[in-house]
Amino acid sequence: MNVTQKLQIQLPSPLQLLSAEASTVLFDKQKPVNVLVKRDDLIHPIISGNKWRKLKSILENWHNTPHSRIVSFGGGYSNHLHALGYACYRLNIPLTAMVRGNYENRLTPMLSDLKKWQCDIRWLNKIDYKKRSDEDWLRTQLDDYQDSLTIPEGGSAMSVHTGMKELVSELPEHINYLLCPVGSGGTLAGIVQAMHQLGRNTKVLGIAVLKGQDYLEDLVKGLIQDQTAMTGQPWQILHNYHLGGYAKAPEELKSFCSEFSLKTQIAIEPVYSGKLFFALRDLLQESYFPEGSTVCALHTGGIQGGR
Ligand SMILES: *Cc1c(COP(=O)(O)O)cnc(C)c1O
After folding, report:
1. What span, in angstroms and rounded, lies between the C-alpha atoms of 128 and 122?
2. Fewest CB atoms within 10 Å of the CB: 21, 122, 165, 219?
3. Nearest alpha-carbon partner for 155 in 74, 230, 65
4. pLDDT tens-digit profile of 26-58?
5. What are phi and psi of 148, to 5 degrees?
6. Ligand 1 centroid to 8 CA: how many Å?
7. Number of neighbours of residue 28 by Cβ within 10 angstroms
8. Distance, CA of 121 to CA of 78 (rounded, Å)
9. Candidate from 41, 191, 272 with most ligand 1 atoms within 8 A of CB, to mutate
C-alpha cells in the first residue's frame, strides 16, 4: 500500500462549477465569466488541501531517505504543522514541531491535536523563532539534528513541485485564470512552474494574505527552480486583499465568509480561502476578467485553523 492509499487521500479533488444561484454572492450582474472552484479542501478530512500537495513527495519518499526525524516550524494555529503532524503520526515518522510562542498552558485545538499525535513540541520565543533557518543554531537545539530533515515554515521548499504538478495536471486546459492564496509562497511557485512545464496558458494570480509587498515576489521566485517558468509564464501577486495583515479579519470579511458559505455550501475561513474569494468577488465586480473567460479559484482548505 502506498502513502496516498494508507492515508486515504481522495484524488483527483473535485472541480466544481459555481451555479448561477450560488454565484450571486460573487456578482450581481448577468454572469459574465465562468467560475470554477478546485476543491482541494476535500482531499482529506484532516490533511487539507495544499498541505498534502506540498508534503506529498517528502512523505512518499520518506523510507528511502537516511533521516530518522522531521523537524518543522509554525505558529499555534498552523495548518502546515497540523497536516504534517497527522501524516507523521499515521506513518510512524517522528516529528518535532518548533512553535512560535509558548502555548503550554493554553493549547490551541491545533496544538492539542499535535499532542494527541505524539508530536515533540518545542516552544520558541519570537527572537529564537527568527533563527529557524540558521543551521548552527538548530544544531544547538536538537540532539538528533544530524539525522533530521527540516521542512521550512508552511512546507515551502523545492519539494513542493511534484505535488503541485499533480494538482495542475488535474485542471482542464481551458482555464484562463487560476487564483490561489499566497502565504509562504510554495503553492504559487509550484503552480507557476507546473503550468509552464505542462504547456498551459493559464494566468496565475496569487492573492497575498499578508502584508508582503516588499518580499513575497522574491520569495516565490526563490522557490521556482525553472528559470524559464519564472519569466515565461504569466503570474502576478495582488497585494490589496490582505485586509490588514495575516490572520486579520475585519467585520466585512467575516460577514462575507458567512454569506459565501451559506449560499454556496462551500466552507471558507478568513485567513486564506476567505481572502481568496473576497478578492475574486472584487475582481469580478470591477470586470477585471474579459467576458467569457473561465476563472478557477483554488480552495486550499485550512478550515481547522478557524477553530
Ligand atoms: C498554508 C496555506 C496557504 C498558503 O500556501 P503557501 O504555499 O504557504 O503560500 C493557503 N491556504 C491554506 C488553507 C493554507 O493552509
Report:
1. 11
2. 21
3. 74
4. 877 666 899 999 999 999 999 988 999 999 999
5. -100, 150
6. 21
7. 9
8. 13
9. 272
